[in-house]
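User: I'm new to structure prediction. If I give you an amino acid sequence, what do you actually give back? Let's try with this one:
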Amino acid sequence: EDLTKTTPFPIKKISLKKRNVSTARNKGAMNSTGSILIFLDADTQLFPNTLNEIIRTNAKIGVCKGKFDSKKPIARISEKIKNLLWQTVWSNGLIFCSKETFNALSGFDETKTKGETGDFIKRAKRASNNSFKRAETYVITSARRLEKWGYLGAARYWVKERLFPTKKEYPLIR
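Assistant: Good question. You get back a string of structure tokens that encode the predicted 3D arrangement of the chain. For your 174 residues, that looks like this:
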């Protein structure tokens, strides 16, 4: 869908030759004019109150609670566990920060092929004196990776990558 024609606010479409999520986020932030930046994964949807709740936090860095788009009991259990671990460097598909914090960090590390979100959150928490908050709203994110790999397989992958990071690219799931 072409959002540039259907939204009440200006949208600037930016194209990149290189496929790299950190590069895309950095380019978007450089072209932004607002004081709050929101980085939203492509498979993540906002609840209607999300933007107001982000503003209400007055945080320099933060995330939202998450729900999976699956109604399976294992998905509901997984989202509860993930929401309990929100102070870690995992996000639910949305990170927000002040443009000031983003600029102080020089953005996302473009050399990372995975773990760029966790790295950014970790650096931002340190730089903002741990002014890390969770907005009291939800985002809905896709469970397709969890369902393709299996919930325990996905958890094992992320824990293993956290403890013993590899240079392998993050597997694409479509």
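You can read the tokens as a compact description of the fold. Here is one thing that stands out. The two ends are 18 Å apart (CA to CA).
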